[in-house]
Amino acid sequence: MLESSRIFDLRNQTEFHTLAVEVAQFQLEHCTIYRDFARLMKVDQVTRFEEIPFLPIRFFKEFDVVSDAIPTDPLVFLSSGTGEQGRSKHIVTRPALYEQSYSLGFETYFGSAKDWVILALLPNYLEQGSSGLVYMMDGLIKQTEHELSGFVLNEMEQIHAHYQAAIASGRKCMLFGVSYALLDLAEQGKDFSKAKVVETGGMKGRRQELTKSELHNALKQGLHTSEIHSEYGMTELLSQGYCGPDLIFSTPAWMQVQLRAVSDPMAQVPEGQRGAFNIIDLANLNSCSFIATDDIGRKVPGGFTLEGRVNESDIRGCNQMVG
């Protein structure tokens, strides 16, 4: 059995490649769906990093993608969307892995949650339930150990009052929300100039879709802040990427993005050129760590950029329109 602690102790690319090969082989042996797909790709075992097959993300809609015995009452996350049939499902057999991944990822980018008051504007995720994002934010809110932190819905005046109280107490304040909810807040014209604003994409059919640049500009103007940050995550992953005003996403050491050619899923795309994302998330130890997504972008120095989605793919709730 692989020691999960190794996932978060990676020090360099060589160690990442070595562990990725071990995880791929483990999942070929223990994840039926991944093994069957790999055999269709004529892969029976993995001994080199370049041999690792990537499971199409749609398989999370159609099958139970697990590499572990499913406990009696597993943690199950569903993607945002309309109707149960069209929602991806991620069965999380070891919640502690997710908790460690999102906590360390947040700390790497923003510092300790204990330094923050976090106000989470995620109304649609709360309404639909079974959200991995809500689970993550609930955990981070608890880590702040501050009475002002919490989920907020449409209480615009209350949000501003909590923000002002947080700043007055000497705490940093983070507004973390889905795009349309942050835009609703921005239209109130309140000053949030000292807040760290983090959007997680998605209009959920509530508003016209905007490019990432257009969205950030609208939020900066409405919230009177100089910069906007963004989170890149999805139901099928247990790790997240974050970007700042430069729109270049960075990932923690156990998560990497590779690019494949849209017209040929077996062809790799060099840095700087446009391609579809293959994501390695080693925290997905007990589902599948190697996922061929429908997102498109480029690898650039320091991380990756998002530029849209593969044509004819389903509209994803997070970060589907980027420019």
Describe the 3D structure.
With 323 residues, the protein is α/β, with parallel strands linked by helices. It has one domain (1-323): 3-Layer(aba) Sandwich (Rossmann fold), CATH 3.40.50. Helix content is 31%, strand content 22%.
Describe this structure in a few short sentences.
With 323 residues, this protein is an alpha/beta fold.
Q: Give the distance, in angstroms, between the N- and C-terminal Cα atoms.
A: 43 Å
Quickly give the CATH architecture: 3-Layer(aba) Sandwich
Strand order of the largest sheet: 5-4-6-7-8-9-10
Mean pLDDT: 89
Report the CATH topology name: Rossmann fold
The H-and-E topology, N to C, reads as HHEHEEHEHHEHEHEHEEEEEEE
**Net shape:** globular
Strand count, sense and closure of the main sheet?
Answer: 7 strands, mixed
CATH superfamily: ANL, N-terminal domain
Number of strands: 14
Number of separate domains: 1
Task: Tell me the helix content.
Answer: 25-40%
Q: How much strand content do the residues show? A: 15-25%
User: What is the CATH domain class?
Assistant: Alpha Beta
**Please, how many helices?**
9
Question: Which consecutive residue ranges, at least 5 long each, have pLDDT under 50?
Answer: 313-323
The whole-angstrom Rg is 19 Å
Q: What structural category do the secondary elements indicate?
A: alpha/beta
Secondary-structure blueprint:
Elements: H1 13-30, H2 32-40, E1 55-56, H3 59-62, E2 75-78, E3 89-92, H4 95-110, E4 116-121, H5 123-128, H6 132-144, E5 150-151, H7 156-168, E6 172-177, H8 179-186, E7 195-199, H9 212-223, E8 229-232, E9 241-243, E10 249-250, E11 255-260, E12 274-281, E13 290-300, E14 303-309
Parallel strand pairs: 1-13, 4-5, 4-6, 6-7, 7-8
Antiparallel strand pairs: 2-3, 8-9, 9-10, 11-12, 12-13, 13-14
Helix pairs in contact: 1-2, 8-9
